[in-house]
Design goal:
Low-confidence stretches: none
Largest sheet: 4 strands, mixed
Radius of gyration: 18 Å
Structural class: alpha+beta
Shape: globular
Order of helices and strands: HEEEEEEHHHHHH
Distance between the termini: 14 Å
Strand content: 5-15%
Number of helices: 7
Number of strands: 6
Strand order of the largest sheet: 2-3-1-4
């Protein structure tokens, strides 16, 4: 498999994991009474958009994440109000966590239960082991070169689930921990969010550097 094919498969796997997360969150939220306002698949400029029912769907080219919005349209100048706040805390928690439980279930289907859980648990340590990242990326790209896409999908699902459940305010884990303050985040939560972002940006840039270097 040449480098262009590896890059294409890498994009497709990232897009699949993020799109399934967004669809799962939208499905869970709709089931418990909080229909999404919009679902955006990917980052960057909008390439396609359409309104299906009452939900605005958009497709963007950078498959590094997706977003599901529950903010109701309001009069100009009025603060947006999330439909999730209409839910009880347990149902709100289900909307946050169950989409990532689905990713772990997908990893189990691809890797087997024991291996998937091992990869999921070890995923929490990935941001704190930067020296191991180049080797991990090389091994992952080797799976793509060998055509072992099922294992690659399972590994990506398990690792991204773990990363997104880390207790940082911008991630699912942090949002879950802040549920007691969901109707008005305290100042310290905002400060933690800023600190988490300052720590995450260099790490994300390092990951992109390692991946690009491995592909080139």
């Amino acid at each position: 498999m040449d480098r262009l094919s590896q890059l294409l498969w890498l994009w497709m796997l990232f897009f699949a994991v993020n799109a399934l997360w967004a669809l799962a969150q939208a499905a869970v939220a709709s089931t418990v009474g909080a229909r999404p306002v919009s679902i955006v698949l990917g980052y960057g400029p909008t390439l396609l958009s359409a309104r299906l029912g009452s939900i605005l769907w958009a497709f963007r080219p950078l498959a590094l994440g997706s977003a599901v919005s529950f903010d109701e349209p309001t009069a100009e100048g009025a603060p947006a109000r999330s439909r999730l706040l209409q839910l009880s805390p347990p149902l709100h928690a289900a909307v946050i966590l169950l989409p990532w439980v689905l990713q772990v279930a997908i990893a189990m289907a691809c890797l087997g239960p024991t291996e998937a859980l091992r990869q999921f648990v070890s995923g929490f340590a990935v941001p704190f082991e930067p020296s191991l990242l180049p080797g991990r990326v090389e091994r992952f790209l080797a799976l793509l070169r060998d055509g072992d896409l099922l294992r690659a999908w399972g590994l990506m699902s398990a690792k991204l689930a773990a990363l997104n459940l880390l207790p940082l305010p911008a991630l699912a884990g942090g949002t879950f921990l802040l549920l007691p303050w969901r109707k008005g985040y305290p100042v310290w939560a905002g400060l933690l969010g800023v600190l988490g972002l300052l720590a995450a940006v260099p790490w994300v840039l390092y990951v992109l550097y390692v991946v690009i270097k491995a592909l080139v």
